[in-house]
Amino acid sequence: MAYRVPRLRLALRRGYATGARPSHLELLGEIHPTDSITNITPTIISKLPLRLHTQLGHPLSSLRARIESHFPDYTHLSSFSPLVTPFKNFDELSFPADHPGRAVTDSYYVNKDLLLRTHTSAHEVDVFRSGQTKWLLTADVYRRDEIDGSHYPVFHQMEGACIFPQDASAMKAVEEHNAQLSAHLDSSNIVIEDIPHITAANPVQPSHDPRHSELVAMNLKLSLNSLLLHLFGGVSGATKEEPLRVRWIEAYFPFTSPSYEVEVFFRGEWLEILGCGVVRQATLDRADVPDKMGWAFGLGLERIAMILNSIPDIRLFWSKDPRFLSQFSADPSKITTFKPYSRYPSCHKDVSFWLSEDTKMHENDLCDLVRDVTGDLVEDVKMIDTFTNPKSGRTSQCYRINYRSMDRSLSNDETNEMHSDVVSRLKDQFGVEIR
């Protein structure tokens, strides 16, 4: 159970810096106990209150509003806490027990009973149980990840869902809606490379009437084709001669079947945009709506904003520099192409070390350590060499850390100090022997 006490951020950061795990963590004004699997870091904790998708004029907030405007009769949600139980994040959605997303190398755990949501689907059951049948939910999500221009441990997702009663009258209404959407798309500048709704490799769920599953899958595809036309059609300058091109691909997700991924051909290449599918009946049964069936989709706001706004580095979304933020309008109908205001020089430094027999360090552990020391002042971290001595059996690794600010030039002294801190923390936290 969480309880309130005075702020402990400085103590927490000092504890992590010495390699010691604090006994409690302050998260969103509450204190939670830690345990042996706690791996959330001070840098990640500092992101929890920011909620970029709600900041007026921020490109993520504008994109959220642009998508919501396409579904005006849906309920729009954005206030759920990022703290969820593993049961809600995984088990309620039929994730297998051995799914890699459960691992401490992939997800941020507060303790064994609490983690930061890794996807907006963690709230699906609760929203369905509340009686909502058509909704969009936007939230920040957290995954341990590498450091480069397109990956960040915090990003923002939008989940959309629509469910229907499983009776003849409701399915007739879905069929009529499909006809309306088809007529709209047929008269628009869009070409869709479709695939069969249901196949042996992408099957209908055993409890579903195949005819109903076909109708629901078609409704999903038509609804999302219409959304993609709304998002990309005007920006791409789609015409009858050069229409927007969309293609569908079979996929697998633990919480939907059949499942699909969708790509858009934009500026000369196919780009993956979102994943979706027919909701697992087990999810709806857990939400106490067993008489319903429907579809859901999830998309990453950063990925789409980087495409639409030509934003080259995902770190920029966290910038407070007015040269970045002033380029974007609070009006969701306006799409701004980002204009780089400077390109500051990079400075790369290597760190080589021997791993001890007791060292248990995942690459994501190193990336979290670097982020805690440098914030957003590192552009990427890459392993450039690994070697195992055939005689001693010891393993050596070498990583290249590329220091570069998006907003200013870094001095040599500043870079050297950060790198020295990284090296010191590596020795203290993981017991490596620096080469």
TrEMBL record:
Main subcellular location of this protein, as a coarse class = mitochondrion
Location in the cell: Mitochondrion matrix
* Reaction(s) the record says it catalyses: tRNA(Phe) + L-phenylalanine + ATP = L-phenylalanyl-tRNA(Phe) + AMP + diphosphate + H(+)
Q: What keywords does the record list, in alphabetical order? A: Aminoacyl-tRNA synthetase, ATP-binding, Ligase, Mitochondrion, Nucleotide-binding, Protein biosynthesis, Transit peptide
Alphabetical list of Pfam families matching this protein: FDX-ACB, tRNA-synt_2d
> Per the UniProt record, which EC number(s) apply here?
6.1.1.20
Q: Where is the Aminoacyl-transfer RNA synthetases class-II family profile domain?
A: 81-322
What Gene3D superfamilies does the database record attribute to this sequence? Bira Bifunctional Protein, Domain 2 (3.30.930.10), Ferrodoxin-fold anticodon-binding domain (3.30.70.380)
GO CC annotations?
mitochondrial matrix
Q: Where are the transmembrane segments?
A: none
Domain FDX-ACB, by residue range, is: 342-435
Q: Which InterPro entries match?
A: aa-tRNA-synth_II, aa-tRNA-synth_II/BPL/LPL, Fdx_antiC-bd, Fdx_antiC-bd_sf, Phe-tRNA-synth_IIc_mito, Phenylalanyl-tRNA_Synthase
Q: Which GO terms describe its molecular function?
A: ATP binding; phenylalanine-tRNA ligase activity; tRNA binding
NCBIfam families named in the record: pheS_mito (TIGR00469)
The protein's name in its UniProt record? Phenylalanine--tRNA ligase, mitochondrial
Q: What is the lineage of its organism?
A: Eukaryota, Fungi, Dikarya, Basidiomycota, Agaricomycotina
